[in-house]
Amino acid sequence: SDWSADSWSDYGSRDKPGTTLGRTVPDGNVLFPDIFHTDNLLFYERFRAYQDYILADCKASEVKRFIAEYLEKVLEPAGWQAIWRTDVFEVLVGVVGVDFLALKAVVQLSEPFLCESQDSSFTLECMQELLELKEHQILLQELWVVYDESGEFDQTALAIEHVRFFYRRIWRTWDEEEEDEFDYFVRCVEPRLRLHYDILEHRVPSGLVADYQNLLSQCEELYEKFLNVRNSISSNDSDSEAENVSMVEGLKLYDKVEHLKQKLKLIENPLLRYVFGYQKYGSLQAKGPRPTGTKVIHVVPWTMTANLLQMLARDKLCPESCEDLEIQFHRDPLGAVNACYEGDRVLICPGHYFVDGVFSIADSVELEGYGLPDDVVIEKQGKGDNFFDCTGANIKISNLKLVQHDAVEGILNVHHGKTTLENCVLQCETTGITVRTSAELLMKNSDLYGAKGAGVEIYPGSACTLLHNGIHHCKEGILVKNFLDEDYEAPKITMVNNMIHNNEGYGVVLVRPVMLSEKKDASAQETKGTFLFLEETPKTANYDFLMMWLLCMTVGDILFPALGNTQPTQAGDETACAEGSRQEQPGCVTDELELYKRAETSEQTENNSEIANVLGATSAKKSQILKKRLSELGFTEADDNLMSQEMFVSVEGNQFKWNGKGSFGVFFF
Fold this sequence. Notes:
alpha/beta; Pectin_lyase_fold/virulence; cytoskeleton; eight-stranded parallel sheet
């Protein structure tokens, strides 16, 4: 380590005299002195310390040495007090020396003797015996430095905090055995540090956090067993049957540990953690029919009046017959949904309801607001995960306004089954609605806005029907996920008479990979000077240009990205009239408004056709890929069911206005 003295001397301190760190009063009944408050450091403070001052570009096997060299530069070797904390006691000690290589401090009990424990067995004599057994050396990470106003021990307190945080939150017992050819900070420290702060700031779903902690505990337990088996084998040179059994057991444990380590890495990676995390929703279990066989109407009143009860009875509770009708009243919508069985119905009376929790709906139930959506508002309170998770076979949500704040995930996720959303308003925070593989969404007469991601995300193998909706003021309007992978089926998409406007990016986006054949074709065309690179289709693109573009997409040429705003040029007399109007020719001025309307209608029609054609062409490409793979496997006549997986697309009557990048685009990766 070749740092100069000046490169680290100012870290954690200021030029002005006195400490810059806060102080905190220790908990408990014993009057311990105040300690430095160092556990509230920001992400960038820890990131900078580990990257620039402590670990730099060290390998996993060099971590302990690098930490020791760092401590030698910043830690006061003696003359300071600290509270020694364990799970069973706390005691005030004085530091008289430091063993940097062992990351331990040499301590002695302070006077007066101050100790707090869960029982009274830790007397002065007992603590002295314990220290003698430990040769008066204890781990630095078990020390909390006593507060000092002079600022002399600021770097000491910060250094011990960094060591403590590292071994509690970052370091894994198996890290030292990982391959040493990678930068340890980049490979392990940074992703784990980011995950820690993502969890602190509620950016990771609570279920995924629990999964991560469980996986980490399992991995540590199995790794300890693996080490015990490995040590028993290495200490025994005999070639007995018991030795062979131990080797087989060790290999099995090793495989399990590696499998768990890979799962942990998936969650630590911010781009991949949700691929793993969403699997937990498959375990939501439906209750099924109520044991008594009856179906219940659950009523949620904000305030119940005689007049409201009378109207409910007339309109919703007993429009035909009240015989054998069971009604239950609840104080909040979440409690009503949690009490539902298969076939139940929830009626929510007008009011503004604040909910701190997730609506996990695994049965076929119906949620209905009694009134207009603006009259029946359910607002997510506090930071948290999803708002609505739907896995039931047939769920219907109607006449509600859903408001989301401080979210981690989207406002509504359809994981399995069919969910119908009718006459609702959705005020989003992150993603809007997500339609997962094998799930179905029917959304009609609804309004969705405010998503920082896509308003609607459509996954491969799903079915999504959007009728008469407004989707606006989102990052993207509708995002169709890649479905070219051989494991995915094409989604079924119906979009009719939707108004998609004022989105930051495109109205509709298709995400798809650049195929290997396309890369080769693109490389060849680039060599010939014919590679086509488009940021946006020219606004004067005509029908022939669009057909040429679709043909390119079908045969595998690449355009980056795809179409933006398209506005076809009018032909014949209309063009002459439009040009003449600019020259103030008589007879054309009166028809200018009509021509504008006709041009706008033509543009919207072309936008709908464009989306349907490109999605259909991509689906056809998937069929070609599948047919080719079947042919390579020796199936000359493909099964009709396998070859009938082309996307069903119906895109009609939709309007696209004022979207930042245009009506439709293709994102290649």
